[in-house]
């Protein structure tokens, strides 16, 4: 119950307060501020700060794949970030389809690490890729869930009838109770 209360409280605070954006011109932070709750925004803000402390030590660029060896300032440890790139033949910027880091922070916790953000920056990608925006922590997570279930229900006639029945039965009981008084 406490976990749910804290989650509701975080969503309420996200809607009542503006996120604290320190880098006001960062397209990535502006995107995240509009999508996520404040605690998740703060996590990603810290990862962006971490990416500013990272440096690309080695870079291998092939036609559709890039590999960066990234190290943090003051640390000896290096991380390998690989990305799949869609080549834009019209001469514009390339589009990154996916990116993976050896620290596995996205796979473990669900937020991009500073190393991956540094690689996106090196690829001149200014916003987080859509596939890395998790619906669980979005401000509109409940709206998205309702829309998804509504489309599933409409496809099956038996489920539509069952949904109407579940909706009408409690109404009928309330009406019968009220009329009997």
Automatic annotation (TrEMBL):
<keyword id="KW-0479">Metal-binding</keyword>
<comment type="function">
    <text>Putative transcription activator involved in regulating light control of development.</text>
</comment>
<protein>
    <recommendedName>
        <fullName>Protein FAR1-RELATED SEQUENCE</fullName>
    </recommendedName>
</protein>
<keyword id="KW-0862">Zinc</keyword>
<dbReference type="GO" id="GO:0005634">
    <property type="term" value="C:nucleus"/>
</dbReference>
<comment type="similarity">
    <text>Belongs to the FHY3/FAR1 family.</text>
</comment>
<dbReference type="InterPro" id="IPR031052">
    <property type="entry name" value="FHY3/FAR1"/>
</dbReference>
<dbReference type="GO" id="GO:0008270">
    <property type="term" value="F:zinc ion binding"/>
</dbReference>
<dbReference type="Pfam" id="PF04434">
    <property type="entry name" value="SWIM"/>
</dbReference>
<feature type="domain" description="SWIM-type">
    <location>
        <begin position="79"/>
        <end position="124"/>
    </location>
</feature>
<keyword id="KW-0539">Nucleus</keyword>
<dbReference type="GO" id="GO:0006355">
    <property type="term" value="P:regulation of DNA-templated transcription"/>
</dbReference>
<dbReference type="InterPro" id="IPR007527">
    <property type="entry name" value="Znf_SWIM"/>
</dbReference>
<keyword id="KW-0863">Zinc-finger</keyword>
């Amino acid at each position: 119950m406490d976990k749910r209360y804290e989650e509701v409280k975080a969503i309420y605070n996200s809607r009542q307060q503006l996120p604290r954006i320190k880098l006001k011109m960062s397209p990535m932070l502006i995107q995240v501020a509009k999508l996520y709750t404040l605690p998740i925004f703060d996590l990603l803000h810290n990862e962006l700060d971490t990416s500013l402390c990272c440096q690309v030590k080695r870079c291998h660029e092939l036609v559709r794949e890039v590999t960066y060896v990234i190290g943090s300032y003051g640390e000896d440890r290096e991380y390998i970030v690989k990305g799949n790139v869609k080549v834009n033949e019209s001469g514009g910027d390339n589009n990154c389809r996916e990116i993976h880091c050896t620290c596995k922070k996205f796979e473990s916790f669900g937020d991009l690490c500073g190393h991956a953000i540094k690689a996106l920056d090196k690829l001149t990608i200014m916003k987080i890729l859509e596939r890395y925006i998790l619906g669980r922590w979005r401000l509109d997570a409940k709206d998205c869930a309702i829309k998804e279930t509504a489309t599933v229900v409409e496809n099956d006639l038996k489920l539509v009838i069952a949904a109407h029945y579940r909706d009408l039965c409690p109404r009928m009981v309330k009406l019968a109770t009220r009329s009997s008084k």
